[in-house]
Task: inverse folding
């Protein structure tokens, strides 16, 4: 069964560093999403992406964040200058009729 | 704005007992509603969804949920809990009531199953 994959499973970085979280969506899906879950809190929407552009973003998704689909298969989330409060589990999802989630990347900012 | 509320961050049942996980939504239009399950170190797996039509929806692993518009609820039930049901469960609503919107999640309910 096709699945969404994410790498790495765990990323530790220092405050102020750039990180790139990678996702490989299911191949025939058209809509892509990033969500995050801070420990002990609810899963929050960050951004949706369709037709090579952002279709919607939340207030969390500020100028420090960017997304791209560099090669038609990968879907990446970049955080330019990480802050302590960016520590969270980041989930990628892709969709045709319903959203399928990846296993997540746990980002720890020290 | 839409919101999803899950009552009880932690529910504990005995094996074989009824599972009831509560979810209420607030929305100006009837939303699409979902239940996801998350096993440790895994992603979110769709259990079931309500879009339109029959208000009682059946999902995987013997779970079902009933959409009650009058109560703005979408509670998840399973008649008989199994040890393998121990996981975290998330209720979610699709924003805008459409098929391409983003999901709004509740805080999650961790289900424990005692032997």
Result:
């Amino acid at each position: 069964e096709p699945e969404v994959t994410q790498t790495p499973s765990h990323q530790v970085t220092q405050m102020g560093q750039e990180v790139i979280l990678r996702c490989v969506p299911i191949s025939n899906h058209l809509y892509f999403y990033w969500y995050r879950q801070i420990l002990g809190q609810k899963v929050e929407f960050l951004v949706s992406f369709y037709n090579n552009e952002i279709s919607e973003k939340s207030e969390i998704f500020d100028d420090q964040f960017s997304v791209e689909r560099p090669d038609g298969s990968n879907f990446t989330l970049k955080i330019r200058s990480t802050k302590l409060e960016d520590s969270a589990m980041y989930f990628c999802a892709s969709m045709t009729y319903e959203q399928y989630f990846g296993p997540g990347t746990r980002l720890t900012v020290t | 704005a839409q919101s999803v509320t899950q009552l009880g961050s932690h529910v504990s049942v005995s094996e074989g007992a009824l599972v009831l996980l509560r979810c209420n939504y607030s929305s100006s239009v009837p939303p699409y509603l979902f239940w996801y399950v998350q096993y440790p170190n895994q992603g979110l797996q769709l259990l079931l969804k309500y879009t339109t039509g029959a208000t009682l929806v059946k999902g995987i692993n013997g779970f079902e949920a009933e959409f009650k518009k009058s109560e703005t609820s979408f509670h998840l039930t399973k008649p008989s809990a199994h040890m393998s049901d121990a996981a975290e469960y998330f209720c979610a609503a699709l924003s805008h009531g459409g098929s391409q919107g983003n999901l709004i999640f509740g805080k999650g309910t961790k289900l424990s199953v005692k032997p």
About this structure: The mean pLDDT of chain A is 93. The longest strand of chain A covers residues 43-50. Chain A is about 0% helix and 55% strand. The CA atoms of residues 10 and 23 of chain A lie 13 Å apart.
